[in-house]
Amino acid sequence: MAENLQQLLDEKGNVVQMLRNSQLGAYIYPIVPTEFSNWRREQKAWRETAVLYDQTHHMVNFFMSGPGALKLLSDTGINSFANFPVDTAKQFVPTASNGGVIGDGILFHEAENEYVYVGRNPGANWLQFHAETGGYDVETRYDDRSPSRPYGQAVHRDYYRFQIQGPNAWPIIEKLAGGPVEKVKFFHMGHLTIAGSSVRTLRHGMAGMPGLELWGPYADHGRIRDAILEAGAEFGIEPCGARAYSSNTLESGWIPSPLPAIYTGGEIERRFREWLPADGYEAINAIDGSFVSDDIDDYYTNPWELGYGSFVKFDHDFIGRDALEKIDPTTQRKKVTLAWNDEDLGKILTSVIDRSGPGYQFFDLPNANYGSSNFDSVIDADGQNVGLSMFTGITANERRGLSLATVDHDVPIGAEVRVLWGESPNTSKKTVEPHEQIAVRAVVSPVPYAETVRQEYHGGWRTTGKL
User: Fold this and answer.
1) 401 near 423, Cβ under 8 Å?
2) 376, 379, 380, 401: which is closest to 389 by C-alpha?
3) CA–CA separation, 292 vs 299, rounded Å?
4) What are the backbone dihedrals phi and psi of residue 419, each rounded to the nearest 5 degrees, phi first?
5) How large is the greatest C-alpha to C-alpha distance in the chain, in angstroms?
6) Which of 43, 53, 395, 412 is spaced 20 to 30 A from 324 at the CA atom?
């Protein structure tokens, strides 16, 4: 039996088939209830009033401390660390030696030589591997995401983590604070006192309006949550369930789960695969969608394709630098939103009650992804593949189906393309039943799609990546 990921890949032979037929099931946002009211009401709240996101459970907290922590981050991230003072944060993006993105997350500089990476497992795993094997003078702690199915077992995290977002977020924050609160710069940190407890804060804006991320000891989770909801009641705050939370990226434009580019590559990636377990995220991560290639490299994305090009700074040596220096950014695919045709989407949504045929791949609401990393083919009028649709769903604010995609650089905004929805051949994933494929008309649109986010988000972060 395989003891690590490399041994598992040697046994399976074809990594694409292994991941396309993963039995993992759909990605689960753990612990937080699916809905508090309903997902449409909760989606509208982040645009019209305010929403409370509970981000406590679905991400890893990876803590790094010591004199070697900053060098570890600089050696593994495309970001510049020439200026990263205490009480600031940045979106951290590590790449493999081939230049492919491994993941991304938010990196907090909490105190001198103390950092926390918050994100999905691949980025945290990559950091832990290098911390343990790279000779860095650093201490680490891995606070893993909560179990997807705890079945009544106790759940513990180091931190609770909330966000208050929406047009009424700031009045709620000031009511909690008992007076005016300075709107510090985007991705700068501060402190509040809520219900008698000191709370760390980060100026954020997932819903396109000024808001705060709040965190503190997990033992305070319930008390702080109750205080926020009580203060926000007069301002129309809605607690956001896991169902709506997973769809907010459709409006803000962040592609949340690129496939980590670690299944091929050089000696570094091989040692990483030998270090990884045979049953970890990288081993069971499910690829879904209509795009099929026998070459796993075709599923990798580089920073420019995901909108992180401006993060790339060649002012330091880092893993993947040599590969990225050879890339011409002007020829790379670009991130866009695809606005799905209502009639075609209607056919998919009603096919579940079509009793005359197999119907189409089920389109769940509001997040239609049925694996961990989504790859649907985007084709032009000539039937040529011009991109990949990577996150799909419906937003009640825009009242339409959308997907986030990366398309060839010469595909213009306003062009009509087709998204091939459904798998061929049908895979053995638990989330897939026999179905037919359908080519869905879609219009290439800006990212972020929501006008309010494009206008209000800090410095066009979702498009320019300025942090």
Assistant:
1) no
2) 376
3) 9
4) -105, 120
5) 66
6) 412
Distances (CA, A) of 427 to 16, 307, 311, 344: 12, 30, 36, 23
- One-letter identity of residue 466: K
Q: Where are the alpha helices (DSSP H) in 253-303?
A: 267-275, 281-284
Percent of residues, the chain, with pLDDT higher than 70: 96
Please count the CA atoms within 13 angstroms of the CA of 138 that sit on its side-chain side: 27
**DSSP for residue 278:** T
Per-residue pLDDT of 392-448, as tens digits, reads 999 999 999 999 999 999 999 999 999 999 998 889 999 999 999 999 999 999 999
- Amino acid letter, residue 99: G
Q: Please tell me the distance from the alpha carbon of residue 50 to that of residue 364, in angstroms, as a whole number.
A: 25
Six token digits for residue 28? 């689960």
In angstroms, rounded to a whole number, what is the distance separating the alpha carbons of residues 166 and 438? 36
- What's the pLDDT at 276? 98
DSSP assignment of 59-98 equals SEEEEEESTTHHHHHHHHBSS--SS--TTEEEEE-BB-TT
Q: How do strand 385-395 and strand 400-407 relate by DSSP bridges?
A: antiparallel
Which secondary-structure segment (H or E) carries 132?
A: helix 121-133
Residues 145-161 have pLDDT tens digits of 999 999 999 999 999 99
What pLDDT does residue 206 have? Answer: 64
Could you give the angle at which helices 69-76 and 121-133 cross, rounded to 10 degrees? 120
Query: Do the beta carbons of residue 283 and residue 8 sit within 8 Å?
Result: yes
Strands 438-445, 334-340: pairing is: antiparallel
* Residues whose CB is less than 8 angstroms from the CB of residue 231 and which lie 6 or more positions away in sequence, other chains included: 172, 175, 176
Q: Cα dihedral angle (256, 291, 334, 311), rounded to 10 degrees? A: 40
Mean pLDDT over the full length of the chain: 94
Q: Which residue has the tokens 């094997």?
A: 133
Residue 26: what pLDDT?
76
pLDDT in tens, 348-390: 999 999 999 899 999 999 999 999 999 999 999 999 999 999 9
Q: Which amino acid is at 43?
A: Q
466: pLDDT confidence band, cut at 50, 70 and 90? very low
Q: How far is CA 270 from the centre of its chain?
A: 25
pLDDT tens-digit map of 339-354? 999 999 999 999 999 9
Residue 208 pLDDT level (bands cut at 50, 70, 90): low
